[in-house]
Automatic annotation (TrEMBL):
Species this protein is from: Sinosporangium siamense
Annotated keywords: DNA-binding, Transcription, Transcription regulation
DNA-binding region per UniProt: 36-55
Gene3D superfamilies to which the protein is assigned, alphabetical: Tetracycline Repressor, domain 2 (1.10.357.10)
Domain called HTH tetR-type: residue spans: 13-73
Pfam families linked to this entry: TetR_C_41 (PF21351), TetR_N (PF00440)
One Gene Ontology molecular-function label: DNA-binding transcription factor activity
Name this polypeptide is given: TetR family transcriptional regulator
Length: 198
């Protein structure tokens, strides 16, 4: 009996993974509004009933795709930050990794272009909060505790830096000039350096 239920659970997870992967591929290539549920189930090799067993709607499936992309971007940011020894350099490296992730066409389309429009600004911001802002809060808290930046309330600083990063990522997503990324990283480095305790 336990074996049968484990197999059922594995099958459920396998179906969910297939749907999320196919939806992600199609949403990234053509955008949310140009993709139908029929295409997704056909590409995932499942039935529409299987899709509705996993997700309430196309928007619900898209939400799962965005969540996955956000998690991956958060992991990239954390890995880049952890690869740097200097505390302030870790913050810059993490922010730069976020901006670089935003240059990825898949991340651009799903996370920066479609997510705010499909899910609404408040839900998109809440998801960003769970993934990106958490890393930023940890980094800034560590910098204050280590005395690298002046003691100050972390919450407003996180909001200011997070807002700047999201705005820069959205702007870079629309830019075709590679120089814009270099200029943005340079401006970001200056901004972060200005937080250093004198």
């Amino acid at each position: 009996m336990a074996q049968a239920s484990r197999t059922k659970e594995e099958q459920r997870l396998s179906t969910r993974r297939a749907l999320v992967a196919e939806a992600r591929r199609l949403f990234a290539a053509r955008g949310y509004s140009a993709v139908s549920l029929a295409e997704i189930v056909r590409g995932a090799l499942v039935t529409k009933g299987a899709l509705y067993h996993q997700f309430e709607s196309k928007a619900d499936l898209f939400r799962a795709v965005v969540e996955r992309v956000q998690e991956e971007v958060g992991a990239r940011v954390a890995a880049s930050a952890e690869a740097v020894d200097h505390p302030l350099g870790r913050l810059v490296a993490g922010c730069e990794a976020f901006l670089l992730a935003g240059r990825d066409p898949e991340v651009q389309q799903i996370m920066l272009i479609d997510a705010p429009a499909v899910l609404g600004w408040n839900e998109w911001r809440a998801m960003d909060e769970r993934h990106s802002a958490r890393h930023l809060t940890e980094a800034l808290t560590h910098l204050v505790e280590a005395g690298v930046i002046a003691e100050q309330p972390i919450e407003p600083l996180v909001r200011l830096l997070s807002g700047a990063m999201n705005e820069a990522a959205l702007w870079l997503a629309r830019s075709s000039d590679p120089g814009d990324l270099r200029a943005t990283v340079s401006a970001l480095t200056s901004m972060v350096e200005s937080l250093r305790r004198s």
